[in-house]
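re the bet — no i am not wrong, look at it urself. input seq straight from the record:
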Amino acid sequence: MSVKVMSLVWDNFNRGGSEKLAMLALADWCNDQGGSLHPSIAGIAKKINTSESQARRIIHKFIDEGYLTVVANHDGGNPGQSRHYKLNIKKLSEGSTDATPSMDATPSTDATPSMDARDPLHGCARPLAPMTPEPPLTINKPSLKEKINKKENSAINRPDDIPEQIWNDFLVLRKLKKAPVTDTALNGIRKEATKAKIRIADALEICCQNGWAGFKAEWMQRQQAPPRQPSKQEMATIAARSFFKNQGERHEREVTGTAEFIEPESIVRSMD
């Protein structure tokens, strides 16, 4: 593939449809000097997705216009043999000076195919199929600006019951979490806020404070649950530990002359 020749075709060959594709295909096959070019008509037709008769007309037109020159095997036609061409690099560099429309956009009324035209892949003559018009090739790619506008327009509007600051903070949070704000997601948070008996604005504020991309009522309930009260067995264990601690402190006070005895039962009763 010659990147140089391909670039010349893109920049200077002001045609469309099958002619543009055929010239790009030839540039893809040739070298930087436009040589080493010997594709069959069938190969060109397959490359540009058209009929062999249409591909043959395009190649003949290129030869007539001086874009293409036959340099070897002029007759072609024998099985396994094709014409050898050379692209006119100088003409491609100068660019098209006329606004000739694509020949497949307006088919000629007198383009009667020759009955003795020879197919490079076959040794026998056969009539050519009539030319059928094809729409010009148009490739429309959305620009980066259009993609951004489409993405921005797909975002939902802020509900009236959510303050603007909380809404903006929530949008930033969802973006960091790579979770788009959709109607479905917002309705789910609204339902969970109802379960938790709070407003959706409060739910979103809690999400922002805790770094939650979503909200569940049970998360709120776990945060607000009161501390668990110790059982009687745990209370007894605490009392026993306190008793033995006091025993050690009492022994120390006896040694120092400041002993004070504490009944274990009084400790347990004080914990009830």
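see?? DSSP finds twelve helices and two strands in the chain. told u. also The radius of gyration is 43 Å. so pay up
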